[in-house]
Amino acid sequence: MAGNAEQLELPLIDLSSPDRACSAKSIRKACVDHGFFYLVNHGIEESVLQLVFQDSKKFFSLPLDEKMKLGYKDHRGYTPMFAETLDPSSKIKGDFKEGFYIGPAKFSASQVDANQWPSEDVLPCWRATMESYYEQMLAVGKSLISLIALALDLDDLFFEKIGALYQPMAFIRLLHYPGETIEDNNGRLGASAHSDYGMVTLLVTDGVPGLQICRDKDRQPHLWENVPHVNGALVVNVGDLLERWTNCLFRSTLHRVLPPGQERYSVAFFIDPNSDCLVECLETCCSEKNPPRFPAIRSGDHLQARIKASYDL
Ligand SMILES: O=C(O)CCC(=O)C(=O)O
Ligand SMILES: [Fe+2]
User: Fold this and answer.
1) Cα 191 to ligand 1 centroid, rounded to whole Å
2) What is its EC number (predicted)?
3) What is the pLDDT of residues 214-229, one digit of tens each?
4) Measured in angstroms, how far is the CA atom of residue 237 from the centroid of ligand 2?
């Protein structure tokens, strides 16, 4: 399937460029045209990424009963094969992948960490690897979001000031697409067609192809284009809440993952605003001629509804 699809050339954004105005302009164009771009010079060391992938592989190699001890709860922990259908409208239920979510640890000293961690005996230092990665990715995300604010003609601290980035609902998701093919694979996908729920997603893959985007969801039949792997770059995409904020100026683009036919690992970092943040059309994105297309929505309510739909809860 992948062989017939177009190869895409997505824009490359340099997070460390001193010319922030120029980067903001490029981000705006990328988010309007594609809703996807590569992020380079993000400051995450290659060795850190290697360690995260190594530890992800160690986790998914555990026996199923061991993984099920950390079963999905409170949007954290292990989701087995076929547990999720990212495209709830799909007739084929269950994507061909397994995953593990890690969310915000705790917001106050009195709160307990809702995350589920493998025991140190089973996977030593695993928790430390993931907690460190979480902090680093969140810092990259915040730095990117300040450029996104500039790209929208806003103060670069706009999203901080409205509280979106105060205790944000950010989640790591380790993903494993198995290599073997299944008998009744009648169009079953690794990840069925979906757009991401939140603000932005920062993705790293192991280089095995499979990710595709559809830039025009209204065009039938859908045209799927391969997102080529770029060494060291993060793949960034706009999520639904940023699309709502921008009144559809920035596009939360439909994407999917084909069953790779060989083992594939990826690690997504989803950044959703603080759950009490009210997401309503930005002043810079509407006018009398272009009124807001969506009512204001509480970020936490939006996320809950989307999760419920993809897990059939
Ligand atoms: O694994 C990938 O390349 C993408 C996964 C994805 O789109 C998601 O989990 O939302
Ligand atoms: Fe996605």
Assistant:
1) 7
2) 1.14.17.4
3) 998 888 888 999 999 9
4) 8
Respond yes or no on whether the N-terminal peptide bond of residue 221 is cis (omega within 30° of 0).
yes
Mutate which of 52, 196, 203, 235 to test ligand 1's pocket (most atoms within 8 Å of Cβ)? 203
**pLDDT reading at 4 higher than 60:** no
Distance of CA 79 to the CA centre of its chain: 16
User: What 3-state class would DSSP assign to 241?
Assistant: helix
Starting from the CA of residue 259, give the closest ligand. 1
Q: Are 172 and 130 in contact (CB under 8 A)?
A: yes
Spacing, Cα 137 to ligand 2 middle (Å)? 17
Atom of ligand 1 nearest to the CA of 210: 3
Q: Which atom of ligand 1 is nearest to the CA of 196?
A: 10
pTM over 0.90: yes
Question: pLDDT tens for residues 121-148?
Answer: 999 999 999 999 999 999 999 999 999 9
Q: How far apart are CA 119 and CA 127, in angstroms?
A: 9
55 and 124 in contact (C-beta within 8 Å)?
A: no
| Per-chain mean pLDDT for the chain | 92
The string of pLDDT tens digits covering residues 184-213 is 566 788 888 899 999 999 999 999 999 999
Q: Other CB atoms closer than 10 Å to residue 135's CB: what's the count?
A: 11
DSSP state of 206: -
State the ipTM, two decimals. 0.99
Closest C-alpha to ligand 1, atom 8 = 268
